[in-house]
Amino acid sequence: MELVNRTEVSEFFLKGFSGYPALEHLLFPLCSAMYLVTLLGNTAIVAVSVLDVHLHTPMYFFLGNLSILDICYTSTFVPLMLVHLLSAQKTISFLGCAMQMCLSLSTGSTECLLLAIMAYDRYLAVCRPLRYPVLMTHRLCLLLAGAAWVLCFFKSVTETVIAMRLPFCGHRVVNHFICEILAVLKLACGDASVNEVFLWVGAILLLPVPLAFICLSYMLILATILRVPSTAGRHKAFSTCSAHLAVVLLFYGTIIFMYMKPRSKEAHISDEVSTVLYAVVTPMLNPVIYSLRNKEVKEAARKVWGRRWTSR
């Protein structure tokens, strides 16, 4: 019987903001603009980091990874969300839902680990400046970034497979604008206890643990900065680290509200607003925060742009 129920599911209906037509009309131009800024801004950071040899450092290697993650993350659902905002037919196939769930979980989880890795990189750069080139080698950068990508991908595949193998009974209406795993699990009529255990373990490992590590790193960074005799040196260190900290607070604040709050069978509009904040707004702000507050990035962008026009 379970197999029959499962094979009958061919598509889901993404309810999204369909109960708020005025909000849909407002969100379409806003999300379109934010998605465009996300694509252009993060692509520019990746291009500048690759083309300017002065930015071939661990900090900009991880920043490039973060930009690629933001592009991939938003692209897993924003294009379809924009189509659904203008359409009455808000459906997604079973396979499309599974792929969207897996890719969004994977890229979102990887960003959690990458932000912790970036905090560790800043800790070594500020607190261990003399040993920094020896400790944060190119090989270690590749190992840390690669491990984050691979581990989170396999974790997300496992969670998605377990979730989508559950029997789905009754209606197929997902109370969200994406195939968010918590929203899809509410439609399952089988035992979802295994899924809940996986999600809670994953949420604890990817949210409080990295956040605690980030907070510890920045406490040590702050203590080191305050001992710097030069005012200019303190200002430069604060400027570099505050940009990263702003991204961390915005990203973790909204995602912890989403995944660490008590489970509820009822859907709330606040869940979807929270998703918009950490899944659309944060990827847009990342390049803005890092580029506008970073003289090295702005100078590298001017050089790359200047070489491009000179070559013409």
UniProtKB/TrEMBL annotation:
It is a multi-pass membrane protein. PANTHER family: OLFACTORY RECEPTOR. The chain crosses the membrane at residues 26-48, 60-86, 92-120, 140-158, 197-225, 237-260, 275-292. SUPFAM superfamilies: Family A G protein-coupled receptor-like. This is Olfactory receptor. Keywords: Cell membrane, G-protein coupled receptor, Membrane, Olfaction, Receptor, Sensory transduction, Transducer, Transmembrane, Transmembrane helix. The gene is LOC118897532. Residues 41-290 form the G-protein coupled receptors family 1 profile domain. It holds the Pfam family 7tm_4.
